[in-house]
Structure formats: structure tokens, C-alpha cells
């Protein structure tokens, strides 16, 4: 929002004489230590010298690497040199705690300097009262823009958009636009396209800067504008916007309200964060970790956030155990069954997880949908059959030899084939069903799948054995 | 490379009268069917009408949704209307097979129209001989640029860069640069910054287009250039480049050779693909699926690509089984142990996977490194202890009641605590060690971890039981 953010930005390049990151991109330990020592000595000059000219991302990483108590001190010692944009680069837990510890006046001062998207990013983490208090102290235009953004739902495009943009009427010439840009102070720090709007702010199209520069000065904007069927609605989910950026290789995109009026612009750097976040969420969900867990969380917080998933799994584990319980007599009769049964269950689990991983990801990227679902279900069942037969031969031979009982080999082999076909089928059917039911397949697929592969594995193997050896 | 790609691009906007995607972003089945029917009827006019004006990404999705035999026919029927950039948007398997089926002349024609980064993307999938044949038929400047890109290692920045860029000497004025851009045909289709170079092509800095537009015409480029400590080396891994884009919110970045000469430019849209790919690779690796498996692969190909992982897991499953084998006598004596033992192993596996997921991802994003490793190992062990105790109480009570044997409850509870602490410890130590050894933690952590949690789980539970009930 302030124009001097730009001059600050321009000086950043030259100051990285001493590298602060190793070749893997991690901050040097010695650098972090040096800053920590300067903070301990309360040496503001030294802190500014070390961290004053860093890029906001580097400052963000530095904050995360400091001990929690040193973090507010760093901001205090940096004073005017601290760019609040750095707070958009740290983990949410770290940010929330820091914001609680900083005086309101400092936050107001810091937020005022930010682009609206960064300001929203910080304000949305505050509680209602504190947020209102800070908004009240901001200049009216900023306050209005931020309030409007904050009124959009969480994780919507409206929350992520920048409310400052460059827009012109359609009858301006290219030369006029270029002169206007050169002569107008306070334009947004970064922009990649000029929007063309009618008097009611309705979006007519956009002209990218490279196109603007390549066009004769006398040309009218209306004659070179690119119509934009690919605008983002402010209420759209940020993930939907991210897919649009990815699909059409966008660098920025107009955000419109329900009346098709231009209200802001989404930038690719914010979208990069969204894409990384969404991929991360899927990955964590598959691993049974909630999306917002961060490595800076405490032991208690982490333990508490992970236990629900373990409790759900505990129930399914007891359920599988009860299946085994049905065959206590059989196991007593032949202990080899107890030794071998985990093999059948775990191989089913592994094969099912392979299928599920592919399915969950393909659903997330919209590569799996109605039209090819049937083909893929068939493919997964057949892959399960093929690999089931291969594994059955290996397991059957090994188990048969180990316990000198060829019939046991045939039984475990058969159970293996049954379980791997089920694993393939349910590995894809479970995520598909959850997706149909509008549930997130990444979150719940795993627990259903393990229940199936464990239950089927134990039941097929122990059941076949009980039937065969009783009759035989 | 060709200037008319641009005019083609400008007309794309207006033609999406009928939407071809549903609100989730999937292609409408009816649309795909209509195209397939037109192809079956060999009706080129209808095909062009339906798909001629689509964005390259939409054409790419369309290709993937068609039956394999229809794909080359679509390209043939589209003729001049087919933009080869669409081939950069399809799965590798689909692309490789399509390229095999297309005549060389068509490929030459298509590649000639592409930006160098897209051309490289397509050429790198061809076999040596075919690639040489096509390069031979391209105009000399294109051939030289493409050959140079292809000489860089796979997955390097040099392969992903665009070799066309806008560069000026430092003594030009802003006005001169703006006029130069307006007057010079054949500039790259898209660019976000103008590079400033010395006569030997050594990179001095860059000026972003918005900055160029905001500066008075008389200013010299040398006075507004931003020095670039954040250039990418052509031999750098694409993932390294992606981290740089993410960290510093870049939209494009200069690529330099070992003598610091400007050789190309990396664009954020290519980096988006890299980021998505890398997150995907981690996710798949954790699920035991190789990175290049695609949903368009055949049953046999898929089965073959997944079996190695299953075989590795089979070995560890037999290893765990052999641990159970040590306690055959104990189990014979008390079958309840066989019923309960999978609970201990599987809860350890679940808890360990949570830790491992967080660790693998934090390593990939460089959030976990030397300085905080010790703190996190301690945290994970303590989280394991905390959740181990909670689960131990629940499992102990349930198991003790179920089998009317309180001592059995105590034993399974103790085993649970032991296994969950191990799960936490190894869940982070295994990825850390693999990372130290320069192996990819996402690929191999899972199999080591399951081995630990199964072995420890069975051994702790059965061993404790054997010791306790024999002595008792």
C-alpha cells in the first residue's frame, strides 16, 4: 500500500555479499547464532546490520529458526527495518504467537506498509477484537479494502487477492496508458497486466505488459485487449483458482464479484503457496497428519492433534483382531497360521496403498473423473490380480517350504490373490466413493482401506485354512 | 519461436462460448464424445470447429480423454490448427506413444512453432535417432538453441529454460528500450523483465516491465537495474530453481552458464509444473508408487512398475514373521497373543507414519535441517511416549477385559508404549539418515519404518508375554 515499499525492494539485491544459506537452501547455523547473540546483547545496530536488508522470505526463515522468546525481540530491534511481509512467510503457529506478543501499535504500523493480500494474511489470524482494533487505526481506504477482503470466506480467492490494480477505460491509447503509468505515483508494487473496465467497473479484458510495450502508441486499448473468459470469482475456493493458474499458465488473474465487477487481482506467487499447501495437505492426510500441524508445534499440541487418527485406527485394529478371534481354535491347532497371517494382511495393505495414492492424487488434479473411472477400476483390479499371482507363487513356495507343508503354501497363496484383488478394487473404489460424497478422499481413504485389507487378509487366510484342514 | 503463435493466442479468449468443463474443472463427457464422433466420421471441419480454438491445455486434456487410437487422428484432422504446445500438457506415456505414431514431417512442423522450452520438452522424449532427424530439419538458429538446451542434464534448469529473451546494454535509456520493444518483431511471446548485459553477454541485472513503465524515458537502464544475486545456473536441478522461485516469489529468473553469461530465462509457469511434480513425487514415493506412473498406463506396465516395491515389502514381512516364529511355543500356550499382536504392530506403524510424513515433507521443503533436528527427534520421541501412554491405557483395559486377563492388559500396554516411542524415534531418524546419505527419504523411509514397528511390536509384546507368563 505504501510506495516506499518499492524503493526498499530495489535495494535488496546488492546486500547479500555474504551468503546466508548453504547450497541446499538452509540458513547457515552460524548466521542464526550470530543474530541470536546480537539479540541477547540487545545490540540493535548489529541486528540491523545482519538482518536489516534481507529479503522478507529470509527474515521469515530466520524468525522460525530463532528461539520463540527471541522472535518478538528481533522485530523490536529491527524497528523500521522490519518488513511485516516476513510474517506471511512463517508457520501459522509462529505467526499467531508472535502477533499475540507484539504491541497493537507495532502491528498497525507494520500492516499499513503491506500489500492488501499480505495484510489480510496477517489480520485473518487475529481474534475478532484485536482485528477490529487494528482496522480502526488504519487509513479509511485501506480499512475498506481490507474489510471487504476479510468478508470473503476463508481460503477463498477474495482473501488471497490484491485489491490494488491498474485499470483503464477502453478508449485510452497505449501511449496514454504508458504515460499514465509513468506519471502516477502509488501504483501497486507489482503488476503484470493492465485491466480494461467500463465506467461501472465491469471487466472488459486485459492487456499484458509485454503486449502493451509491443504495440504502437496510437492504438486503442479496446483494440488489443484480450477478453478474459478465465476470471476468478472472489468467492471461488483458492484451490479452484490455483487449478486455473496451472491449467492456463497464468501469472495474474482478475478477480470479479458476482456482478462481474473487477475487485482485485490474484498473483501467481500467492498461487504457488496455495498449490504447495494443497499438495502438502493431501500428503499429510494420507499420512494421518492434520493439515495445520507444523514442525514448530509443541509436544503436547502435536500429540493432541495426532491422537484422533490413532484412535480411529485403534478401532479398526480391534475389529481386525476380532476377525482373528473367530479362528482361535484353528490357530491353536496350527500355530504356523499366526506366524504367517500378518504377511497376507500387510501385503494387501501395501498394494492397496499404491492404488489409493494414485487415485487420491488423480482425483485432486481432476485427472480421474466420471468418464475414466470404470476403466481405472478394472485396471486396478487386474493389476491386483497380476501382482497377487506373482506374490502368491513366492509366498506359497516360501511358506510351504518353511513349514514343510505344501497345502499351507497353496492356502496362503490363494488368500494373497484374493486380498490383492480386493486391495486394488477398494484402493480405488473408496476414494471414488468419498469424492462422490463430497468428502476429502485423502483424509479418510487410508483407514477404510486398511480395515478392508486386514479383515479380508485375515479372513481369507484363516478361513481357508480352517475349511481346508478341517475337511482334509 | 514463430511470431504468429502470438496472434493465435490473442484469439483464444473469445471462443469459449460453450463451456467445455464442469464446475470441478473436468472436461464434459458430452464434449469428448462429440469430438470422438467427429473423428470417427473423419469430419475435419467439425473437429476444427469443436477443438480448433481451444487453449493448448484444453486440447491436452482432450487428447488424454480420447481413446489411444483417436489421438493421432485428432492431430491429423486439426492439421494447422493443432498447437504442439498441447503435447507438453499430456502424460509422458501418452506423449511418447503419440510421437511414435506421428510422421516426422508433422513433428518438425509442430516443433518449429514452439517456444524453445516446449520444444525441448517434446524432443527429450524421443529416441536419439528420431531426435537427430528432427533437429536436422529445423532452421539453424533453432537447432543450435535446442541442442544447447538438450545438452544440459535431465531435470536441470537448462532443460526447462526458454532460450529467447529481451536484453539491452546498460547505456540504453528507458525510452530507447520501450521503442526497441515496440519496433522489433520476433521478440519472445511472453516476457516479464528486460535483462541488462555487457558486450560479453555477462548478466548485469534486470528491469521488470512494471518498473520500466514507471520510469522516465530519459533514465539509463544501468541506473534502474536490479542486481540479481538470485540467478539460476543452467546446470542447477529444476527443484533447486523451484525453491528459489517459491522463496523469493519470482515470476521469471535469468539462467546463466558457468561463466555467468545469460543463456536463457526460466518462467514461473514451468516452475509451477515442477513444484506440482516434486510434491507429487514425494506423495507417490511415500505410497510406494514410482514417480512416473500415470493413470493412462496399461495394466501390465502398472503391475510391473509396482511389483519391486511389493517384493521389498515381502522380504520385510517375512522378517517380521520370523520374529513371530520365535514365539510359536508361547502362542500355542496362549492364542490370545496371536489375536492381539497385530494391534501393537499396526498402531506403531500408524504413529510412525505420522512422524515420517512430517519429517519427509519438512526435509523436502528444507524446514528440517541440522540445527533443529535434535529438537525434533526429542519432540517425536515425547509425542510417541504421550500417545503411547494414552493408547496403552485404552488397549490394556480393552484387552484385559476381553480375555479376562488383567496381566495380559498390562503386557500389551507396555509393549504399546515401547513401540510408539520407537515409532516416533525411527519415524524421524530414518528420513534424516537417508537424507544425510543423499538418498531420497520419501522413497525408502516407509519400508525401513514398517520393519522397525512390526519387529519391535511383535518382539516387545510376545517377548514380554513369554518372559512374564513363564516366570509367573
Automatic annotation (TrEMBL), chains A, B:
<feature type="transmembrane region" description="Helical">
    <location>
        <begin position="333"/>
        <end position="360"/>
    </location>
</feature>
<dbReference type="GO" id="GO:0046872">
    <property type="term" value="F:metal ion binding"/>
</dbReference>
<feature type="transmembrane region" description="Helical">
    <location>
        <begin position="381"/>
        <end position="403"/>
    </location>
</feature>
<keyword id="KW-0472">Membrane</keyword>
<keyword id="KW-1003">Cell membrane</keyword>
<dbReference type="GO" id="GO:0015095">
    <property type="term" value="F:magnesium ion transmembrane transporter activity"/>
</dbReference>
<feature type="transmembrane region" description="Helical">
    <location>
        <begin position="409"/>
        <end position="434"/>
    </location>
</feature>
<dbReference type="Pfam" id="PF03448">
    <property type="entry name" value="MgtE_N"/>
</dbReference>
<keyword id="KW-0813">Transport</keyword>
<dbReference type="Pfam" id="PF00571">
    <property type="entry name" value="CBS"/>
</dbReference>
<feature type="transmembrane region" description="Helical">
    <location>
        <begin position="307"/>
        <end position="327"/>
    </location>
</feature>
<feature type="transmembrane region" description="Helical">
    <location>
        <begin position="446"/>
        <end position="469"/>
    </location>
</feature>
<comment type="similarity">
    <text>Belongs to the SLC41A transporter family.</text>
</comment>
<dbReference type="Pfam" id="PF01769">
    <property type="entry name" value="MgtE"/>
</dbReference>
<dbReference type="InterPro" id="IPR006669">
    <property type="entry name" value="MgtE_transporter"/>
</dbReference>
<dbReference type="InterPro" id="IPR000644">
    <property type="entry name" value="CBS_dom"/>
</dbReference>
<dbReference type="InterPro" id="IPR046342">
    <property type="entry name" value="CBS_dom_sf"/>
</dbReference>
<dbReference type="InterPro" id="IPR006667">
    <property type="entry name" value="SLC41_membr_dom"/>
</dbReference>
<keyword id="KW-0129">CBS domain</keyword>
<dbReference type="GO" id="GO:0005886">
    <property type="term" value="C:plasma membrane"/>
</dbReference>
<keyword id="KW-0479">Metal-binding</keyword>
<dbReference type="InterPro" id="IPR036739">
    <property type="entry name" value="SLC41_membr_dom_sf"/>
</dbReference>
<protein>
    <recommendedName>
        <fullName>Magnesium transporter MgtE</fullName>
    </recommendedName>
</protein>
<dbReference type="InterPro" id="IPR006668">
    <property type="entry name" value="Mg_transptr_MgtE_intracell_dom"/>
</dbReference>
<keyword id="KW-1133">Transmembrane helix</keyword>
<comment type="subunit">
    <text>Homodimer.</text>
</comment>
<dbReference type="InterPro" id="IPR038076">
    <property type="entry name" value="MgtE_N_sf"/>
</dbReference>
<keyword id="KW-0460">Magnesium</keyword>
<feature type="domain" description="CBS">
    <location>
        <begin position="221"/>
        <end position="281"/>
    </location>
</feature>
<keyword id="KW-0812">Transmembrane</keyword>
<comment type="function">
    <text>Acts as a magnesium transporter.</text>
</comment>
Amino acid at each position: 500500500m505504501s510506495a516506499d515499499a518499492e524503493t526498499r525492494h530495489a535495494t535488496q539485491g546488492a546486500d547479500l555479499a555474504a551468503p546466508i544459506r548453504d547450497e541446499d537452501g538452509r540458513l547457515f547455523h552460524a548466521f542464526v547464532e550470530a543474530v541470536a547473540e546480537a539479540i541477547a546483547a540487545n545490540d540493535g545496530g548489529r541486528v540491523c546490520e545482519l538482518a536489516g536488508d534481507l529479503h522478507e522470505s529470509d527474515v521469515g526463515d530466520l524468525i522460525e529458526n530463532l528461539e520463540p522468546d527471541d522472535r518478538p525481540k528481533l522485530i523490536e530491534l529491527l524497528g523500521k527495518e522490519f518488513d511485516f511481509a516476513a510474517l506471511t512467510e512463517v508457520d501459522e503457529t509462529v505467526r499467531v504467537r508472535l502477533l499475540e506478543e507484539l504491541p497493537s501499535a507495532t502491528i498497525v504500523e507494520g500492516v499499513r506498509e503491506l500489500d492488501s493480500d499480505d495484510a489480510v494474511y496477517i489480520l485473518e489470524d487475529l481474534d475478532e477484537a484485536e482485528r477490529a482494533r487494528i482496522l480502526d487505526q488504519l487509513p479509511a481506504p485501506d480499512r475498506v479494502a481490507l474489510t471487504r477482503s476479510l468478508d470473503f470466506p476463508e481460503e477463498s480467492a477474495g482473501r488471497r487477492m490484491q485489491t490494488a490494480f491498474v485499470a483503464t477505460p477502453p478508449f485510452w491509447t497505449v501511449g496514454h496508458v504508458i504515460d499514465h503509468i509513468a506519471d502516477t505515483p502509488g501504483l501497486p508494487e507489482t503488476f503484470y497486466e493492465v485491466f480494461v473496465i467500463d465506467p461501472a467497473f465491469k471487466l472488459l479484458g486485459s492487456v499484458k505488459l509485454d503486449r502493451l510495450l509491443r504495440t504502437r502508441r496510437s492504438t486503442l486499448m479496446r483494440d488489443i485487449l484480450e477478453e478474459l473468459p478465465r476470471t476468478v470469482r472472489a468467492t471461488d475456493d483458492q484451490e479452484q483458482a490455483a487449478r486455473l493458474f496451472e491449467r492456463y499458465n497464468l501469472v495474474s488473474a482478475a478477480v470479479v464479484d458476482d456482478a462481474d465487477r473487477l475487485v482485485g487481482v490474484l498473483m501467481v506467487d500467492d498461487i504457488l503457496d496455495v498449490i504447495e499447501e494443497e499438495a502438502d495437505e493431501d500428503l499429510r492426510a494420507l499420512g494421518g497428519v492434520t493439515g495445520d500441524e507444523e514442525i514448530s508445534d509443541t509436544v503436547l499440541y502435536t500429540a493432541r492433534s495426532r491422537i484422533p487418527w490413532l484412535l480411529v485406527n485403534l478401532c479398526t485394529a480391534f475389529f481386525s483382531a476380532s476377525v482373528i478371534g473367530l479362528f482361535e481354535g484353528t490357530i491353536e491347532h496350527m500355530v504356523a497360521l499366526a506366524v504367517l497371517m500378518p504377511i497376507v494382511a500387510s501385503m494387501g495393505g501395501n498394494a492397496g496403498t499404491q492404488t489409493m495414492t494414485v487415485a487420491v492424487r488423480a482425483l485432486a488434479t481432476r485427472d480421474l473423473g466420471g468418464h475414466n473411472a470404470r476403466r481405472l477400476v478394472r485396471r486396478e483390479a487386474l493389476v491386483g490380480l497380476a501382482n497377487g499371482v506373482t506374490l502368491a507363487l513366492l509366498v506359497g513356495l516360501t511358506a510351504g517350504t518353511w513349514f514343510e507343508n505344501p497345502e499351507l503354501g497353496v492356502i496362503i497363496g490363494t488368500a494373497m490373490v484374493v486380498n490383492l484383488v480386493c486391495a486394488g478394487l477398494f484402493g480405488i473404489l473408496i476414494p471414488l466413493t468419498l469424492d462422490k460424497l463430497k468428502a476429502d478422499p485423502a483424509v479418510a481413504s487410508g483407514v477404510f482401506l486398511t480395515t478392508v485389507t486386514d479383515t479380508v487378509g485375515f479372513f481369507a487366510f484363516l478361513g481357508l485354512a480352517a475349511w481346508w484342514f478341517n475337511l482334509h
